[in-house]
Amino acid sequence: MINPVTELIDFGRAALLKPVPRDHWQEPSAVLRRRIVAGVTLVIGAAILWYSLRIPAGDPRFYAWTLALAAVWIVGAFASGPLHLGHAWTRDGGVARPVVQSLALAALITGVFLAGAVVVAQVPVLRGPVDELLDHARYGSLPLVWAITTINGVGEELYFRGALFAGVGRGHPVTITTVIYTLTTIGTGVPLLVLAAFMLGLLCGLQRRVTGGVLGPIIVHCIWSTSMLFLLPPMLDLFG
User: Fold this and answer.
1) Domain-located, residue 99
2) Which of 217, 176, 216, 183 is nearest to 197 (CA)?
3) How far is residue 118's CA from residue 135's CA, in Å, rounded to a whole number?
4) Into how many domains does the chain fold?
5) Distance of alpha carbon 74 from alpha carbon 69, whole angstroms
6) pTM for the full model?
7) Residues 215-239: pLDDT tens digits?
8) How far is Cα 162 from Cα 180, in angstroms, rounded to an integer?
């Protein structure tokens, strides 16, 4: 008989704690180059993010600037050096691309945020900034906002869990990349976006450390962001 508690513990260990063996060693000169490129990319990307989230909802400039932000993350990530898709543990102890594992993690974090939406809906000081952020979807083109959100999710993971994570090296990359990822959102003025960045960054960072690549974090990020875009507004309206 399957013990669900044991299954959950085993899944958590395999998905977030036990790294899959790999060899991604680079020459010191290549690591230095990656760090320089990652640093320049971070400064530019953080500035564009801060500006784009201050553009009024419905303003077409929002689309252009958020696409520019995605381009900065993606170009900076690939310019920094090689990136890897990564592998995840399977139930039989083998390895495979981190798809099923990442889908499960995405469902988990999405459920946590939707449950939190019940509380946020009751607190005006928390709900107000979230509504302002979601207004870009309410008053703009929802399919276009979704496409841009997805592209940005891919770009952020290529950069933060790809280029920056590899640039940090073995010196606490999960902690450092999570802190930096969180700090980039403080200037947006949306407290829950900062909290979301911390939680998502930590989860994706742990999975990046286990899998050694960006595919898993990309899947988690894109499913989570899509769920927030389509499911969060009705949740807030239902319980508000």
Assistant:
1) yes
2) 183
3) 19
4) 1
5) 9
6) 0.95
7) 999 999 999 999 999 999 999 888 8
8) 14
